[in-house]
Write a structure and sequence with these properties.
heterodimer; A: mainly alpha; globular; B: six-stranded mixed beta sheet; four-stranded antiparallel beta sheet; 21% strand; elongated
């Protein structure tokens, strides 16, 4: 055996942090009739009937449109297996594949797929919209604006404005962009209406109009009840307002979505309920395991968990910094600022200040944070 | 595709974790010189790939699970391919129990093999559950007293884990611990500072003039040799368990040794005699022993590990000496050497060592 073995042993370090070496606590039920599992059938997942490329693309596209599949890891993995070999010959497969990558927070790879699809001649509004959103999430506002501009010639007419105005609002024109977005007309029953409500709510939050924002979050959720993003943001808004019971009602059936679970725990903590800390520790372990074993990062959730539940500002700041490297949405900046303040870290606070200064970024919650 | 728009947008905001994380844990170890595998997997996962619920009432009973043992064994044999020294090694299901698995009830399965510990190489190809859930992962861990620990995460794209089976040869152990010793001395700032404090006055002769190369080399060589002989003795005594003073005392004493040596440079109570250096070296040896014990010693290769670590410490010191000596001799030619380097450096060392002493003497919070 060479040193290769020992270097492998050294490499085992992070994994060994998992509770693998605790002697397994095993047991055998007393009675053969003991029910050891209530089976919950996994959502039916029918693979494409035909094996031709068109059928597979349609199958993947339908799954991506299905809100109940939006966070289904197994479905995503099966889609990935299906789409990966089609990418070289079908630019549409690259677009769908990019959606999977962005859901896994692999933004750089998603952008590369979109670029390849564009170079292959794909002219689809989804492509430019996804580019714009990914770049915006990363804080790359100028290239995001160029992607929005590419939507100007694409129907529906409101698409370009819905893409551009929120982007502008992050760069020194919050009030004007908010006013223009409020006046933008979209089909009230369309998905665009839900999107508009979410963007309005986000701008209103940054303008310091939390009550108005709450109405828009509610509207977004009404138009699209499966929208976990709007649900989480509404929960955050309610928690800020101290509406703990209402938050709990909103999050009564959160499933296993970590952001919603942790917000529910924050409400439970505020109400003085038992058991929230145990659940919070379990959630932390789950998030860490997701990163170690499955390569999935959940730094935003980890930062919130440490900050709001585990009273660990240093760990919160570490996660908030890690999150900031790939996600730069308003909530991420707020999280970084709050973690920096909680841990009294001037360097992290200056990162927030630099971002604000560079983009003329406005968020009424940030000055309030400084003054508190 | 149009309706993808909002779905794509919203997908950015929340990470995918609603579908439960699926992984299985496998521990490979030896029992009575035979390889055994302990596997813990989610019952829900196994129920998705095997017809465990025979009466189809949506409730899995213990009797149903036991009755499914043959099917389970077939499934495990097909998805777990163990090879030892180039030959396939069949696994058989020997025990079946329940165990906690990420907050839920899991299946604990003991698989035995007729194969002994590999002499050259072994591999395990893990392909369980991938056909149902490509996001499933197998966390494979090798836990062996002699071979140590190693781990691997199996995925559909990378399912095979290869490892070398025999214990390391003494040359491998020696070189591995030699590197560890060098890293310890370079990373142990207190040891380096102590050495530096001893070397600072050695650049000057008794009249305060810069020593010639030969004289300096002799003096510094004597200092390093005394330190080395002393810490080698206590390193061996500490590692073999002959003398094991409490680590907290040793850490504090090491800080005190730096402080005293630095004060001696400032107030010249006495020249750093070989005896004094030897005495302090004994203390530092216990510190090295603590580091080595913390790292772990292979019970079957204690001697090469010990020799390698000690040799690594010496080589690390020698490397520092080779870099520091010419610089010190050059600096000693300046009239500012005594006030700036010798006294200034020693004063800074005093301050640092005092802080260490306080920090290490305080009870842990």
């Amino acid at each position: 055996m060479t040193h290769r073995f020992w270097s492998r042993c050294a490499g085992a370090g992070p994994l060994l942090a998992l509770p693998l070496f605790a002697a397994a606590q095993t047991w055998v039920p007393d009675s053969p009739d003991t029910v050891i599992l209530e089976l919950t059938p996994s959502p039916e997942l029918t693979l494409p009937q035909r094996q031709d490329a068109r059928a597979r693309l349609d199958w993947a596209s339908a799954l991506l449109r299905d809100p109940s599949r939006a966070e289904d890891r197994r479905a995503m993995a099966l889609m990935e297996q299906t789409l990966r070999p089609l990418r070289e010959t079908h630019p549409q497969a690259r677009l769908l594949y990019a959606t999977l990558l962005q859901r896994r927070h692999d933004f750089a790879a998603a952008l590369a797929e979109l670029k390849a699809a564009e170079e292959a001649g794909l002219n689809d509004p989804n492509l430019f919209l996804q580019q714009a959103m990914l770049l915006r999430v990363q804080g790359a506002f100028d290239p995001a604006g160029r992607a929005c501009a590419a939507l100007a010639t694409q129907p529906p007419a409101a698409l370009n404005r819905l893409c551009q105005l929120p982007l502008d609002s992050l760069q020194g024109t919050l009030a004007a962009s908010l006013e223009q977005l409020q006046q933008l007309r979209v089909d009230p029953g369309s998905l665009l209406a839900s999107w508009k409500a979410s963007e309005l709510a986000d701008m209103l939050e940054r303008s310091g109009q939390a009550d108005m924002a709450r109405q828009q979050w509610r509207r977004a959720l009404f138009l699209r009840p499966a929208d976990d993003y709007a649900r989480a943001q509404l929960a955050r808004n309610l928690l800020e307002a101290g509406a703990l019971t209402e938050t709990l009602a909103l999050l009564s059936e959160v499933g296993s979505q970590p952001a919603l679970r942790l917000l529910r725990l924050v409400a439970l903590r505020g109400l003085g309920a038992d058991g929230w800390r145990t659940e919070a520790e379990a959630l932390k372990e789950e998030l860490l395991r997701a990163a170690r074993v499955h390569g999935e990062r959940h730094d935003r959730e980890l930062a919130e968990l440490h900050l709001l539940l585990l009273d660990a500002p240093e760990a919160a700041l570490e996660a908030a910094r890690a999150n900031w490297r790939y996600q730069r949405e308003p909530i991420d900046l707020l999280l970084l600022a709050r973690s920096a303040k909680a841990h009294a870290d001037a360097q992290a606070a200056s990162m927030v200040g630099d971002f604000v200064a560079r983009h003329a970024y406005e968020d009424a919650r940030l000055p309030a944070l400084d003054a508190s | 595709m149009r309706t993808l728009l909002i779905a794509g947008l919203l997908a950015l905001s929340l990470p995918a974790l609603a579908h439960r994380l699926s992984d299985a844990e496998l521990q490979l170890r030896r029992e009575d010189e035979r390889l055994v595998l302990e596997l813990t997997a989610g019952l829900q996962d196994l129920a998705a790939v095997l017809p465990l619920d025979r009466d189809g009432d949506g409730r899995l009973r213990w009797s149903e699970f036991q009755a499914a043992a043959p099917a389970l064994e077939d499934y495990l044999r097909a998805g777990l391919l163990l090879q030892v020294d180039g030959a396939p090694c069949p696994l058989s299901l020997d025990d079946l129990r329940l165990s906690p698995h990420h907050g839920e009830t899991g299946a604990w399965l003991l698989l035995r093999s007729p194969c002994g510990w590999p002499q050259s190489a072994a591999s395990l190809d893990y392909r369980l559950l991938f056909e149902y859930d490509p996001s499933h992962r197998g966390v494979l861990v090798l836990a062996d007293e002699e071979a140590g620990m190693a781990s691997f995460v199996a995925s559909p794209g990378k399912s095979r884990w290869d490892w070398h089976g025999s214990r390391p040869g003494w040359i491998d152990t020696l070189s591995s611990y030699l590197r560890a010793g060098m890293h310890h001395i370079w990373g142990g700032f207190d040891h380096l500072l102590f050495l530096a404090i001893l070397l600072l006055p050695a650049a000057l002769d008794r009249h305060g003039r810069a020593r010639a190369l030969g004289g300096a080399l002799g003096r510094m060589g004597l200092i390093v040799t005394s330190f080395t002989v002393a810490h080698s003795l206590t390193l061996i005594a500490g590692v073999l368990g002959w003398l094991q003073p409490p680590a907290s005392w040793i850490e504090s004493a090491i800080a005190a040794s730096v402080l005293l040596a630095a004060l001696n440079n400032l107030f010249s109570w006495r020249e750093h005699s070989n005896a004094l250096v030897f005495a302090f070296g004994l203390l530092h040896g216990f510190g090295f022993a603590g580091a080595l014990v913390e790292q772990g010693l292979p019970s079957q290769a204690m001697i090469p590990a010990l020799v390698g670590f000690n040799l690594g410490v010496e080589l690390g010191q020698l490397a520092v000496l080779l870099v520091a000596m010419p610089l010190l001799l050059l600096a000693a030619r300046s009239r500012y050497y005594r006030p700036a380097v010798l006294h200034g450096g020693s004063a800074a060392a005093c301050l640092l060592a005092s802080l260490w002493l306080i920090e290490r003497s305080l009870p842990a919070a």
